Amino acid sequence: MKTVxxxxxxxxxRKSITRILRDSELCSMGTLDPRNRPHINTAYxxxxxxxxxxxxxxxxxxxxxxxxxxxxxxxxxxxxxxxxSWDAPGRGLQLFGTCSQTEGKLARKAERVYAKRxxxxxxxxxSRKKGExxxxxxxxxxxxxxxxxxxxxVLDEAEYGGAAFVMVTIKPxxxxxxxxxxxxxxxxxxxxxxxxxxxx
Length: 200
Hints:
Number of helices: 8
Largest sheet: 6 strands, antiparallel, barrel
Structural class: alpha+beta
Mean pLDDT: 89
Strand order of the largest sheet: 2-3-4-7-6-5
Radius of gyration: 17 Å
Helix content: 25-40%
């Protein structure tokens, strides 16, 4: 296994990251509970941008991971297609950063991005059918969360070779943002990075 530094100015790397984000709809995310123990869950996600990447997901504020985030915004995430074969070139992302619940304009932006990626969401939210109205009612009780990754670990074996990881740092546009202040280093030190099949 080898790890090299990458830069988002590299078009080859940008295409690799964009392809992984585009081709994957599910993510797994790790948070820390009040006793500093790791917790993991999965969610459908949507994303916006790349130079200042934003990842949004919809979740129940009473869930364990959302309660964890209300106390500690540090989060790690993996994104990869779940149908990859063990012996095929691996492809996926590990991301480290901070996450918080959205409000106001940001929440409305998150919903627009989410509805664009998942048209059924938009359909259910405006539907008058009994079954879909019930689903919409449940979804309205959830909230959108925004994950701001500051470090990416890219695995794209077809592009960079076997067991080769590319580490990327995303510089925040607004360093004063409360969500962006927390460093992912504490998370990485606490439980180590998430893993892909075959490699870590």
